[in-house]
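Supplementary notes for students who missed Thursday's class. We covered one full example, reproduced here. Read the sequence, then the structure, then the short commentary at the end.
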Amino acid sequence: MSLEMLEARASVMMELIVDKLSLLDYENKFCNSRKPPWPRLHKFYFAMQCSSQNDQFLYFVSLVSWLLSLVACKLPGLREQMDSNATCTDIMLRLKELGFAQPSWAASKLKQGFGDAVCSVLDGLTDLALEAQRFQFYQPIYSREMSSDDDVEILSLHGDSAKEVCVLPESKQIVNDRNIMDKHGNSPGACPENLDRGNAGRHYYEESKMQAERLACQSRVTMGSDGKDWRTHLNEAQQLHCDLSEGLSTCCAQLQKIEEDISFCLDKLESKERFLTKQFELLLTDYNSVKDRLVDVQQKLDQSLGNLTSYKNQLACTLEQLEKVKHMLVEKGNKISDVSPLVEMKNGILNLKMELQEMEVHVGVLEHTLLKNQLTKVLQ
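Structure (token representation):
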């Protein structure tokens, strides 16, 4: 389901949730239970993300706890040190205990505090709370009487029966007097007093009729047909109900025929399946035996692969030791073939010989000097 469809579904459910919470009187029983009181919900509160997601999640958990208390199930409220994931898990456990089906979404979706998952939980809990409160929905009763003001009434005059005239209470009293005069003043055996009253009543009637016609021209309001009127919608709904009722019998017959055809096809499929099962029974037996042998071979292969892995590990260790030995041999070979120490020794010997020659020269010079000194002393 796309994201737009989920948002639209959440909006529709949220509107129903607000109506059902109003039936539960949540404004007095829930909102006023805290100081400061909880704000009243609007039809998009849990359908969309609010400015403060933490406040939204806290409102959701508190509302769920209150709804669970209505159905005799307790849920600890959200605390600052409590983990929100654990709270969502507790809510799902309580819903499972109440008999709700396992949803397709994860419990972590309740942590965000809005969306289709949150609205689904609230919708189910409000329905359950209304059922626990034994609330029943009845068909609406529409009053056929036209609402009238206390100061204006609608009467139908004898002289103009096809028109409805709006008159004041004083005019109504005059018309009633006229009706009494019609009953008594126009009778054949009426007395003169009655005749005078009849003439006076006719005069009052003519005057009241003129006043009523004048008021009717000023107070009559002609209402045009409104497409948004609930009466129009009700008539359309009744017409659609009649059309659906007429087409229901035909649809039922067609559905019955489709059901019979499907049942006949299912019987044919079952018979064909039994026939094929009998034909392939031997092949199925061979297949099972081959499958068992394949399982044995697969086990042996797994065991061989395990042995091969151990052998590979041993080979890797041996190769590592061999590399170490090769490295040691190469180092020793390099040391044996290296002639630089001999060259240094030769150079050192040559240097010693040169130094010995210099020392002999110095010794000879010193001996000559001593001999010279001795001879000098002897001659003196």
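Commentary. Strands lie at 153-155, 165-167. The longest helix spans residues 281-336. If anything here is unclear, bring it to office hours.
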